[in-house]
Amino acid sequence: MSIGKPAKDPKTGRFLPREPRVGAPIGAGAPARTRARKAVRSKLGELFLDDMLSAWESRGAAAIQALIEKNPHDFLKAVASLMPKDVTVNVNQIGEMTDEQLLERIRKLDAKIKPFLAAQGADGAGDRDRAAAEHE
Hints:
Elements: H1 32-70, H2 72-82, H3 99-120, H4 130-134
Helix pairs in contact: 1-2
Region (Disordered): 1-34
């Protein structure tokens, strides 16, 4: 196999992997330089993340406070970028309830608050009963 042109598979036309160098360990098909670059990049990434964690642990809260004071707009952008894009919250399901479901809900609430209304009166004025308060 010549060094100038890479070999191709005659059936598929794809390039074939390079032959390992004589005396190279098995699995040493990738050039040593490529493996070294990947190792350096991996190590650099690990060191960078370690440094970032250390900086965050020592100055994270202070950095956030400084950002709030100096650039509140950038702080709000950072917070907004952390929020989910779509949030569906339905805290009021009454619009989707049938009349029967609404009546049942009212009956349950009435049963739960009767003891409180009886003790306080409907207007919270004292020991008057609920019926008397409703007729006023």
